[in-house]
Amino acid sequence: MSTVRIGIIIGSTRPGRVGDQVANWVLEHAATRTDAEFELVDLADFALPHLDEAMPPSLGQYANDHTKAWAEKVDSFDGYIFVTPEYNHSTSGALKNALDFVYGEWNDKAAGLVSYGAAGGTRAAEHLRLILGELQVADVRQQVAFSLMTDFENYHVFTPAAYHQGMLAAQLDQLVPWAAALKGVRDARSALAQAA
User: CA 88, CA 92: separation in Å to the nearest integer?
Assistant: First the structure.
């Protein structure tokens, strides 16, 4: 059986962001596991403009090189951990845009949510769950939520409380088996498509 691959997606591209600190913390703890491989994915590295594809993403007919590169990266994973800030009771525009760029590459994958904000980013995570449902991404129940008030020094330097490690471990215990199981779903879907 091939190794389960999980992408840890930094959901902010804002200058001075703290999302990279959170994502690196996730990677540091996740990398101690032996049941999956983890890779950091920074949306800033893809420089996606506001959705500029003429055809709907559900058709999979991508015209632009930046879309093709993003689609290839998304498709390379069996699951994701979305590290999202909370902006105005929702996720970031950059992450929403990145989610909207492609479609089939997200389908039948699993996801965990790690959020941060004044209220722990919980409202952003709840909004993100609705988006993921439409993309046919199965999100796991366990969430990790960091408060700007208590898990950051001066709202900028990440100093997470120790109990968050247990919450992340619980999320990964849910996420990795789901990601592995959904490989079978994708294989079955592919076999049906080939038989048609």
Answer: 9
